[in-house]
Amino acid sequence: MKGTRVMITGATNGIGLQLADTLLSMGATVYGTGRSSGKLQAIAESMAGRSGTFVPLLADHSDLSSVSAMLSSLSSHTDVLDIVVNNAGIHYGLPMQSMHKDTRSATNGMDTLFVTNYLSHVLITEKVLPMLNRSKMEKPRVVQVSSTYHWISDGSLLRPNGPLPPFASRGSELEKPFRQMHLSYGDSKLAQLLHMHAVNRMLEEESSKVAVVAFCPAWVGTGIQPEGVARQVTHALAHQPEQGIHALLHAALHPDISRGDFVGNTNVVSYLPFKEHWLISPFQFQGFHLRDNLIDTFAMLMMFVQKFNFGAFVQETSPESKDQELQDALHKWSLRAVSEWL
């Protein structure tokens, strides 16, 4: 991969760090973002002996001004990219532990997780498309690190309501409803898939060779899990980052991957019969949202069985991810939300 230029967001930990290490060993130039200048410098020093080159880029993905400054810094290093991996992300943890927290971004008042996981990558993707179009690769691409957990979201909290922004984007000074906290991560991952499809249609109209694809690592022990029992259990049972990037390399590099493909390390979800009917059921039972509980149960099951069904698979995505009207509505709103920095 000598001469290949790869941008990785969230490159100081977990999957992003492992991917950067692997690609640097293959000779690539890696532009890695992180919010700690100390961590970035330490990584640059530790990887100085690799055949590739690590270029640290400071960015707080919950702050769109910081992301914009990072993109300006990137442009001073290169005007061409071959691959972009939108990996940076956070998770609020268990809703009961986080629903009484102030979830507003310090810079724009929107939901911190939504800005970090989704809007920061909208801004990055839209800004670097000209760089990707200059690539000499046959199929330069953007890889959205999403999640099979997007199935928990029915998309209703992502739909703009006239002049009002999507409910999932709104920050809260004191607390959020339990269910909104519970859906926040899944909403952000569905939003990434919706953006992927909207951008791919635009690229097709422009006859661009750039492809946007998505990736799900399944359960991997990384720093995204909040401190506590949840992180300990995940680290004990899940894949380590070196296994977690297996299908990510496939999504980023394999020539047969097509626009809109959703690649994962496991294919367990494909074995669920009629899931497009019962996993999208909106009905409730005594106040319980059955879709939420079914997908939570399935997600826990996946942690135990993923090691027996490991590879690089093109997965199915939820029916909502294919809703073109929702794709276009969210994309139009998202462009307005980041317009100050475009």
**Structural domain count:** 1
The quaternary structure here is: single chain
The description of the largest β-sheet is: 8 strands, mixed
Low-confidence stretches: none
Share of helix, binned: 40-55%
Strand order, sheet with most strands: 3-2-1-4-5-6-7-10
CATH superfamily: NAD(P)-binding Rossmann-like Domain
What order do the helices and strands follow? EHEHEHEHHEHEHHHEHEEHEH
Tell me, rounded to a whole number, the average pLDDT.
91
- Treating each run of at least 4 consecutive H or I residues as one helix, how many helices? 12
Indicate the CATH class.
Answer: Alpha Beta
**Strand tally:** 10
Shape by Cα distribution: globular
**What's the alpha carbon Rg, rounded to whole Å?**
19 Å
Instruction: For the record, give the distance between the C-alpha atoms at the N and C termini, rounded to a whole number.
Output: 30 Å
Structural class: alpha/beta
Portion of residues in beta strands equals 5-15%
